[in-house]
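Deviation from plan, reported transparently: fe (iii) ion complex.
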Amino acid sequence: MTDNRTEFDAKAAESGAGATAAFAAKQKAAIDVPQERVSAIAKDVLTGLFEVINKHQVTYAEYDALKAWLIKVGEDGEWPLFLDVWVEHEVEQVNTAHRQGSKGTIEGPYYVPNAPEQGANGSLPMRDDEPGQKMNFTGQVTSTDGSALGGAVVELWQADANGFYSQYAPGLPEWNLRGTFTTDDQGRFDIAGLQPAPYQIPTDGACGQLIAAAGWHSWRPAHLHLKVSAPGHELLTAQLYFPGDPHNEDDIASAVKPELMLNPQPQPDGTNKVEYDFVLDPAQA
Ligand code: MBD
Ligand code: FE
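Because the crystal trials were delayed, the predicted structure below was used instead.
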């Protein structure tokens, strides 16, 4: 079958199905949570729900609307999107509170491992006519003791100017705007990339239905996604943002932190330059 569709033909249920399949593949090995912990957490989740039902005197019609919506979340494959937009930020906070090094934030639903390696001074894979502002991104990866981490791996992924992630919308090259960079012996990297645009989560699926029904908005500020890793150190999952973005203050995914701001400097050649250093925590014993 030939597929002449473009990214503008993207459907929430198609990107949802892709994100669900990618998560299922990653999660193949069952995780064994101790019975007492399953019981304690499940009981507290239900107790929280009962409080909400009582507080708001939830009707049967509302209960049935919820039931229909939850079924649709599954049908649209939007559990990864729903959980990462509205829940992951709290899990991220709990699990990184001990860190001394760089702040991180949520991963979101569209990471793909093993993007093509570009070296320490490389280009983010993109189309010849990729729309958007060219941006050079340099920085250094160190450990919390200040030592440079040569051979650290910086994985970068982002949506294109139209708000689509490769592998989750039709018509895009497989690794478009996804790259892996490995730092030089000073821990440095220098990436010829692209400045991202504000991003709207898919609106034509179950998550969009919730947003419309509640009168919320569906925007995230422009962001780069990153994973930074080095042997003997904790994996840093982060996003970087841009000052002045209208959605820095009301990100639908609650994932903006003041420590994660870039500061683009226009260059004579028309590119913008940004610098950002990453400090990794040594792995806990
Ligand atoms: C995204 O691009 C994203 O970064 C998050 C957190 C949720 C949905 C889409
Ligand atoms: Fe994103």
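The first helix runs from residue 12 to 26. We consider this an acceptable substitute for the interim report.
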